[in-house]
Amino acid sequence: MTTEPKPIVVVTGAYGFLGLHVCRRLAAEGVRVRVVDLATYAAINWKEVNALPGVEWLRVDVAAPDTMDEATRGDKVAAVLHLAAETHVDRSLGLTPTTLAAEGGDALDRFWRTNAIGTARVARWCAANAVRMIHVSTDEVLGDRWIAGPLINGGGRITGGEIDVADVSSAPYPPGSPYAASKIAAEAAVLAEVRCAGLDAVIVRPTNLYGPGQATDKLIPVAVRKLCSNELVPLYGDGRQVREWVHVEDVARLLVHLAIDEDARGVSLLASSPRCGVVHAGSGRRGSNRLVVEALAERVEERGLRHPGPDRTTFVQDRPGHDFAYGLDSSLTTTECGWKAVRSFLSERDLDELIDAYGANT
Using an 8 Å Cβ cutoff, are 100 and 90 in contact? Predict the structure, then answer.
């Protein structure tokens, strides 16, 4: 008696931060994973992903016309988890993170080709082949949520106020960076295929991710590495920019649920209620960049990995167009998907995990 092979889940951009945790969870479920990744500088976790059982890799450009046909080879595909994206705001501006020095290459070509054209290609293929698509977007498509007052001419800002928490009905605000603009275009490409071709799709907007396996030029890895080396952590402006943080494993759990669980099939942009296809993945735990660094510093010092001292940060030139705050209302995700974040940002467990991942052996 022969058994039918398990369907395949295609994961684009699987070698990145979120991709690592998604692939681990899929492998633990016994799912066959077909990786679509060009293996550029962002493929920081390729060894870990390739070592997982049931993983096959095709090195191709997600924005090329025939990529999805090459990746699937006529096999039955249960879903496509579309994670492939250029993500660093500084790099979308053609700048090196933190130093803001000019970076080589054509940033607009990279970001718009991967984020907009690549997403459009995947959406078109999924629609043509009746395959479910889970598109990973970002809270940045909803723009700056700081409602203290209007922007002041010259780029200054009123600094008091609250976060305007965005629900799924919020229209995108003017984008704060080329990165955000390219991700708005990506969402539009998915929505167009839903309307014109009946694409079964879900758009997931996570907040700021944290956890092990992240690129070392992001805030938390930089902060831990600097702190454990007794160096000052560079923060843009005054360090008061507010972000909402969610653990990468929590978001991976949600994505895999949407991709492979039958009881998640009602969550789709094809559903009668349009809000059912846009999913916010946040924890509700928000804090300024400076607060995050101070919490990490205190724990590093408690563990004897840094000499205690009053100076932990240094303030550097702010990024052009820097959004001050993001915040999402993820309550509908609990209602529609039965999901909520379980990890507690800045808990001792999470602080130790981050320190062990990025700095304990510095």
Answer: yes
The answer to whether 220 touches 210, Cβ cutoff 8 Å, is yes
Give the CA distances from residue 133 to residues 146, 154, 187, 261, in Å, rounded to whole numbers and listed in that order: 32, 42, 12, 13
Least confident of 7-11, 74-78, 151-155, 242-246: 151-155
Longest CA–CA separation in the chain, Å: 74
Give the pLDDT of residue 352.
97
Q: Which of these, 29, 17, 168, 294, lies nearest to 37 by C-alpha position?
A: 17
Q: Which residues of 105-139 are buried (b: 16+ CB within 10 A; e: fewer)?
A: eebeebbbbbbbbbbbbbbbbbbeeebbbbbbbbb
Separation between Cα atoms, residue 341 and residue 325, nearest integer Å: 20
Q: DSSP E strands: which ranges in 174-312?
A: 201-206, 208-210, 233-236, 242-247, 278-281, 286-288
- DSSP character for 4? P
CB atoms within 10 A of CB 51: 9
pTM value surpassing 0.70? yes
Q: Closest Cα partner for 255 from 17, 1, 2, 5?
A: 17
- Distance, in Å, from the CA atom of 251 to the CA atom of 269, rounded to the nearest integer, reads 19
**Torsion sign over Cα 139, 143, 146, 147:** negative
Residue with tokens 């002041």: 152
Q: What is the pLDDT of residue 99?
A: 84
